[in-house]
Amino acid sequence: MIRKAVGAIIYQQDNYLLVYKSNINTTLGKQTISSAWDFVKGGVEARDADLESALLRELKEETGSTKYRIHKQFERLLSFEFEKSIQEKIGFEKQETTMFLVEFIGKISHLQPVDQEITRVRFVKKHTLVGTLSHDETKSYVSDLWSEL
User: Fold this and answer.
1) What is the CB neighbour count within 10 angstroms for residue 45?
2) pTM for this entry
3) What are the structural domains, with CATH classification, of the chain?
4) 105, 108, 110, 115: CA torsion to nearest 10
5) Using CA atoms, how far apart are residues 107 and 111, in angstroms rounded to an integer?
6) I need a surface site. Which of 34, 52, 53, 73 has the fewest CB within 10 A?
């Protein structure tokens, strides 16, 4: 099965927002995973009216803020397979994520993870973005979009 998801490459001036994910939603509730620096991403839920609604919900859950302006939806999906140990816990083999370019228009000091999946948020400079990301698929995705960021 393929999990449909949304995600955001979030910027404020020349800084990019990353979240530190330490837990994942599973059929048994929240479970600890190998921590990773990543973009805000999450599954599309039946209650979401559309992809933008799903994205705004994820942004609020993972950063505690609603101070965002969506600039564009990228055509290319960010796709990856879950590790076997994760597949069994979440019921999905693969994830296809619709990514958006989003501007953060709030105060950095107001960012606070609400969802128990995220333990930290931080901004990094563009030139360190790819090197800070933890997942190879995400690094490759960002590298391919570099001129659009």
Assistant:
1) 11
2) 0.91
3) 2-148 (3.90.79.10)
4) 90
5) 7
6) 34
Structure tokens that stand for 78 in this block: 């960010």
In this model, does residue 20 exceed pLDDT 90?
Answer: yes
pLDDT at res. 30: 63
Residue listed under structure tokens 């101070």: 67
Q: Kindly give, in sequence order, each residue whose CB lies less than 8 Å from that of residue 74, ignoring residues fewer than 6 positions away.
A: 98, 99, 100, 101, 145, 148
Q: Pull the structure tokens for residue 97.
A: 């994520």
- Residue 121, both tokens: 């948020």
Q: For the chain, how many residues are written? A: 149
59's CB contacts (< 8 A; 6+ apart) are 8, 10, 40, 65, 66, 68, 102
